[in-house]
Specification:
By secondary structure, this protein is α/β, with parallel strands linked by helices. Helices cover 44% and strands 14% of the residues.
Length: 254
């Protein structure tokens, strides 16, 4: 019988689920986040309480079976937030732990292939974010940027921006997930925010903009226009490298 397993949606919580699936011998588990569960008329429900000790035991066990690259791909899949991804990850882990030889590159297995493909999608989104983030300066010398990635890639891009912009305070805010990463010149921390203002409305944002911000944006737009050669314009190729879904947060596209 299928048993629904509920968890808090955290990385540690997921590995607690894996531990308890083995501990309680749950053979047909369907994993869901507690805040997304709609209930079911069929089967049983097992609710996990996140336990760092249990999670660590699973992680250590996987560390003996997986390369660092394969473990990173597991994390990429978790960040994808795709519906049912936890079930795929659980089947993958069961396969890895049951095999007598290394099987992380056995793409004949549907779950191994699915994890590898999703990892590529997440990392493509990561690279897009690193390329397309545009900071704007506020009156209190904070550089902020608004993003809306398909996948939850803020944890993957923080090192890039911390290293690249180490001498300035910045905030990158994910408007879809209502949280951001903030760098205070020493460390990056996660912050929970829920802006009421229209973050693309210049009239509403004028009260927080630095007085030089409009000039910076105008100069950037002029530079972008000057390096484009109309005779060589290839919109199809341009959209391929800079998908339209990113345009609303790009200064040069306003």
């Amino acid at each position: 019988m299928v048993e629904k397993v509920l968890y808090d949606g955290s990385w540690t919580g997921f590995f607690t689920v894996v531990f308890e699936v083995y501990e309680y011998k749950i053979n047909s588990a369907v994993i869901e986040k507690k805040d997304e569960c709609n209930g079911s008329l069929f089967g049983n429900t097992h609710v996990t309480q996140t336990d760092a000790v249990k999670a660590r035991r699973v992680i250590d066990k996987l560390g003996q079976r997986l390369t660092s690259k394969a473990f990173r791909q597991l994390y990429d899949n978790f960040l994808s937030e795709e519906k049912g991804v936890e079930d795929t990850m659980l089947r993958y882990i069961r396969y890895i732990l049951s095999a007598k030889v290394a099987v992380e590159n056995n793409y004949a297995n549907a779950d191994v292939l699915a994890l590898q493909q999703m990892s590529r999608k997440v990392h493509r989104e990561k690279h897009h974010m690193e390329a397309f983030v545009r900071f704007q300066l506020t009156k209190d010398e904070l550089y902020y940027a608004i993003v809306q990635p398909d996948y939850n890639v803020l944890p993957l891009i923080l090192s890039h921006f911390k290293n690249r912009y180490a001498d300035q305070r910045w905030l990158i805010y994910d408007s879809r997930r209502k949280y951001g990463i903030y760098y205070d010149l020493q460390q990056v921390t996660e912050v929970q925010l829920d802006f009421a203002a229209d973050l693309q409305n210049k009239n509403e944002l004028s009260v927080i903009y630095d007085e030089k911000e409009d000039l910076y944006q105008t100069l950037w737009q002029q530079y972008f226009k000057s390096i484009n050669i109309a005779a060589r314009k290839n919109m199809k190729l341009h959209i391929q490298h800079m998908p339209k879904r990113y345009w609303k947060y790009l200064v040069e596209k306003q």
